[in-house]
Specification:
The complex is a heterodimer of chains A (185) and B (273). Chain A has a single domain (29-184), classed as Arp2/3 complex 21 kDa subunit ARPC3 (Orthogonal Bundle). Chain A contains 6 helices and 2 strands; from the N terminus they run ββαααααα. Chain A has helices at residues 31-48, 61-73, 75-94, 99-112, 121-147, 153-184; strands at residues 12-13, 16-17. In chain A, strand 1 (12-13) and strand 2 (16-17) form a beta hairpin. Chain B has 273 residues and is of the alpha+beta class. Chain B is 37% helix and 27% strand. Chain B has 3 helices and 12 strands, in the order H-H-H-E-E-E-E-E-E-E-E-E-E-E-E. Chain B has helices spanning 10-35, 41-72, 74-117; strands at residues 122-130, 138-141, 154-156, 161-168, 173-177, 184-189, 195-200, 205-211, 221-224, 235-243, 250-257, 266-270. In chain B, the strands form 2 sheets. Chain B has a 6-stranded antiparallel β-barrel with strand order 1-2-5-4-3-12. A 6-stranded antiparallel barrel of chain B has the order 6-7-8-11-10-9. The chains are: A mainly alpha (185), B alpha+beta (273). Chain A binds chain B through residues 11-15, 39, 43-44, 46-48, 75-76, 79-80, 82-83, 86-88, 90-92, 94-97, 99-100, 102-104, 107, 111, 142, 146-147, and chain B through 3-7, 12, 15-16, 19-20, 22-24, 26-31, 34-35, 40, 42-43, 45-47, 50, 53-54, 57-58, 61.
Chain lengths: 185, 273
């Protein structure tokens, strides 16, 4: 894929030069498809998430998907997917804590799309780690503001650390699988 | 002139603000509903739409998981099943042995109680054989003349009278059961003290020569009367039927023997009165 890159003179952005344009990546996935995958991810989490826990943390399929979508499709698509996915999570039991964080994660990941490729293992894993932390921090803040002091900082912080590990592992696997799939095509 | 593109250009800022406002609205909706202990519109819609899906998904995945687990562990299950089957067989054999021991223990306790209730020397014998042709109601016991058993020694079980010794060898003796028609035992009804003679009817026993005026009742207990052979007070059976004819001299009572002669194992032989 790198051979297909056309290194044009990029315009300046806030944190440095834009990434080269990837002309071989093809069209970005359709939003309806992404939304379908997001719904499936949330359903899987809501139905089987308890079976995949590691020291109290659950892998967040939606976080990985939203981060990847943001990197691949930009802040608008990432933000909308985060908004809808987070709203669905809250509707299925989040209590209003997930939607803002997930929207932020989608949007912020989208801002990174101007500087990194969505198939960069390092970029995706780092973005997923950051996204997980941002999402949990916002969720914690919303919970504390909305429901008062719950004294759950240590529990959430501990679970977040393990969730970062789980999500990053999943993200790495997803990127490797996508690379393999693209290479086969 | 070089155009400077800002990170926060207007379009992105607009999208960002819109998204955050919508997200905050959704969040507030959920928080408000949660605080009031009810479901929001989103919760209701999502529940109606996705709960059946989740239910089906759970069932499908559970079924697949169970099947895969069964296939993967089939060898282990077979081995465990065999081990459990072996264990069941061992335990069943042990259980049967214990039940036999318990039954024997009960028999011996009853024998001991009978021995303590009666005077005289007695020894325990095992029933080792029945008459092969069943022409007489006899059993063979594993004690004989060398053990002090002699003709007319009285034989009892824990439940009552078995019979008396007909003949003895050095190591065995033949016992005529009380249900043999040749057996005649002086006896009386414990309640009314009416005397009679108990003789066998092959399957049961009957008490003959009961005074016509004696008042019999079914269930009356019949015990041995002290006589030439038998000591007094050994239970023989209970009255089951009463045969009383006005023109007869005596009444006859059919008895249910106290002893189950089909399951005799241990008996007590009185070697001296």
């Amino acid at each position: 894929m790198n051979a297909d890159l056309v290194r044009s003179a990029p315009p300046r952005v806030l944190f440095g030069p834009r990434r080269p344009v990837d002309t071989g990546a093809g069209a970005p996935p359709r939003f309806s498809m992404l939304l379908l995958v997001a719904v499936a991810a949330v359903l899987c989490q809501a139905t089987f998430g308890h079976a995949w826990s590691l020291r109290g943390a659950h892998v967040s399929l939606l976080t990985v998907l939203v981060v990847w979508t943001g990197l691949r499709c930009g802040p608008t698509t990432g933000g909308w997917l985060g908004l809808l996915g987070g709203a669905l999570e809250d509707a299925l039991g989040g209590g209003g804590a997930d939607v803002i964080g997930m929207t932020l994660v989608g949007f912020l990941s989208g801002l990174l799309s101007s500087r990194f490729f969505a198939d960069s293992l390092t970029a995706v894993v780092a973005a997923v780690a950051g996204g997980t932390i941002v999402r949990n921090a916002v969720a914690y803040a919303v919970l504390e503001i909305a429901y008062g002091d719950r004294g759950s900082y240590h529990r959430i912080a501990h679970a977040t650390a393990w969730e970062v590990l789980l999500n990053c592992t999943l993200a790495a696997l997803v990127v490797l699988a996508l690379r393999w799939w693209v290479d086969r095509r | 002139m070089v155009a400077i593109h800002s990170f926060w250009d207007e379009r992105k800022l607009l999208v960002f603000v819109a998204l955050i406002i919508v997200a905050a609205g959704v969040s507030l909706l959920e928080i408000d509903a949660a605080k009031h202990g009810r479901q929001s519109v989103l919760d209701v819609a999502a529940g109606a739409l996705f709960t059946p899906l989740q239910s089906g998904l759970t069932r499908v995945v559970d079924a697949i998981g169970t099947s895969v687990h069964d296939v993967v562990h089939s060898g282990e299950y077979a081995a465990r099943n065999q081990a459990l089957q072996d264990k069941v067989n061992t335990l069943a054999a042990a259980n049967a042995r214990l039940q036999g021991d318990a039954a024997e223990n009960r028999d011996l306790r009853r024998l001991l109680a009978m021995k303590q209730a009666m005077a005289g020397d007695a020894l325990v014998a095992d029933v080792v054989g029945y008459m092969p042709e069943a022409t007489r109601r006899e059993v063979t016991i594993d004690r004989g003349s060398r053990d002090g058993v002699h003709r007319d020694s009285v034989v009892v079980s824990g439940d009552g009278l078995v019979g008396h010794v007909l003949s003895t060898g050095p190591h065995e003796a033949r016992v005529l059961l009380v249900i043999d028609p040749d057996s005649n035992v002086p006896a009386y009804l414990q309640r009314s003290r009416s005397w009679g003679i108990v003789t066998g009817t092959w399957q049961h026993a009957k008490m003959k020569y009961i005074d016509q005026n004696a008042r019999l009742q079914t269930g009356d207990i019949v015990v041995t009367g002290h006589g030439e052979i038998y000591p007094g007070g050994i239970p023989i059976g209970r009255v089951r039927e009463i045969d009383r004819k006005d023109n007869a001299l005596y009444q006859v009572a059919v008895l249910d023997p106290a002893v189950d002669f089909h399951s005799l194992v241990h008996v007590l032989v009185y070697t001296s009165p």
